[in-house]
Amino acid sequence: MISLGASIDYFPVPAFITRDDNVIIKLNSQFSKTIKTVGNKHINQFFDHIDMYEEGAFMSAVLEERQFLFLRQKINDNFLYIGKETAFLQELNQKVIELERLNRELDSIINSSYDGIYITDNKGVTLKTNDAIERITGIPKEYYIGKTVDKLMKRGILKNSVTPKVLKQRRTVSVVQNNYQNKETLITGSPVMNEKGDIEKVITNIRDLSELNSLLDELNEVQKRSDEYERELKKLKGFSDQGIIVESQTMTELYEMAERIADFDATVLILGETGVGKDVLARYIYRSGLRSEKGEFIKVNCGAIPPELLESELFGYEGGAFTGANKKGKPGMFELADNGVIFLDEVGELPLKMQVKLLQVIQDGMLQRVGATKSKKVDVRIIAATNRNLREMIKEGTFREDLFYRLNVIPFTIPPLRERRDDILALLQFFLDKTNNKYGLNKVLTDELKRFLYDWEWEGNVREMANLMERLVLTTSSSKISIEHLPPEYRNDEQDMKITDIIPLNQAAELAEKQVISLAAQRYKSTYQIAEALQTSQPTIVRKMKKYRIEIK
Ligand SMILES: Nc1ncnc2c1ncn2[C@@H]1O[C@H](COP(=O)(O)OP(=O)(O)OP(=O)(O)O)[C@@H](O)[C@H]1O
């Protein structure tokens, strides 16, 4: 009979025998030939590490960085170990560790989700929930674990569940419902299938739409407000970008109205003293409207064109219409403004004969060139302006009532500067900056001067201010412009205006004449207007301005 010690050499796997005090007495050759360690030691010293399982029926051991699993059997006073190298166990162990890590990761992902997540098995038994479920349902998340959704619904804890529907229909199901706090929630259940195509789990996502909805409402509100601000800003920027100062409430409302009517074709009549900005407003209406994309803005200064030329200027003439005329003929201002806007400035200066012709064009949209036999169609928007009192003129019989009503469809009255003093400081700064930029200077106004100019009557309105600022910036040598730098006509003290010495009468008359013409030249922009204001003829004004070297600013 072969002894136990000898027989283990026949085992095709690692084996060894110990005494009952665990000291190795024999290693089989299968084992000893694959290791360097020498036997006859206590197993604790022989192996690098050992673990006993199942009350010592199994032992796992590490030796020379190799992993073994031994079956341990008591035979008489000895123990017989029969083993196998188990590299796969190590791999398994590694996999378990990896799976545990993944599981933890998944748990924290599920928990950090802002949506509620609810997982059941294929019988509807709750396996897992997350923190968000507590926020959305108001019930601790642990309460659900192990309970079936049917039971939770019967108890009224769940109002509705998609889980049974998913199990029945074997596909993703969504419902929108109000939860117990009456908050709108979107519930989406999705099946998780195994490799055989059977449902293993149902994962339900619960999204609180009420917060989303209120965020959406808030977002819409913010968007609306930001659109409004943008429009306001555009408007404000729109004015200043175009070199228009609009500061007072009256002017803001007036320009807002201009913006609103810009796209309509109705005739506009702009009233206001000289220099208030009638031309500026007319151009703004044109630029803000669709006609600026299709046609021109043509300005006609009705007061500056000699009456005998007015008709051919406005309506054009045919070749050979009169001596000195262009052979080919010439289009008038109305034709040039086709599809655009014609601005009839100083419309009150139109002679009655021309008023009739203008009325015809407005009524029929047709005009006839001087010397022509046929009429032409024109598509023109009319903006008219005047500083005259047209109603008075109607009474006097110098302006046709029917034309007035044709023009006065959308009336604008621009108040004089002294009636909208809120615009004054902004305009002063605007013209100061403009002149400084134009001449590369950097002058400033003293506060005292600003106060003075704020109170000034500004008979010549914005034009007077624009001229004064340019004059002050150019004629003042110091960098600070103050009251002393104002021209004599602005000084309040009577002294300057008075002649204090005895001088010949004709000299005194000349002095007075020079002063009054230069004052008018500040306020008006044409010699016709100055002549009218001073109640004399235009050629007289031209002559005198030359004599006194006065120029219109
Ligand atoms: N709001 C404003 N912002 C900036 N500049 C302005 C403004 N209003 C008027 N101006 C300037 O003042 C001057 C006179 O304006 P505008 O010619 O428009 O006046 P008007 O009322 O048409 O004068 P008139 O009756 O003599 O024809 C122009 O140089 C114009 O650029």
In short:
This protein has about 550 residues and is α+β, with helices and mostly antiparallel strands. The protein is built from 23 helices and 22 strands. Helix 17 (about 425-440) crosses helix 19 (about 460-475) and helix 22 (about 525-535) crosses helix 23.
3D architecture notes:
Residues 244-474 form the Sigma-54 factor interaction domain. Residues 212-239 form a coiled coil. One of its GO terms (molecular function) is ATP binding. With 553 residues, the chain is α+β, with helices and mostly antiparallel strands. The chain folds into 4 domains: 4-85, PAS domain (Beta-Lactamase), CATH 3.30.450; 104-211, Beta-Lactamase, CATH 3.30.450; 242-415, Rossmann fold, CATH 3.40.50.300; 420-548, Helicase, Ruva Protein, domain 3 (Orthogonal Bundle), CATH 1.10.8.60. 43% of the residues lie in helices and 20% in strands. The chain has 23 helices and 22 strands. The strands form 6 sheets. It has a 6-stranded antiparallel sheet with strand order 2-1-6-5-4-3. Strands 8-7-11-10-9 form a 5-stranded antiparallel sheet. Strands 13-16-19-12-20 form a 5-stranded parallel sheet. Helix 17 crosses helix 19 (461-475) and helix 22 (527-533) packs across helix 23 (538-548). The longest helix has 33 residues, at 209-241. Residues 243-245, 272, 274-280, 345, 387, 430, 462-463, 466, 525 line the site of adenosine-5'-triphosphate.
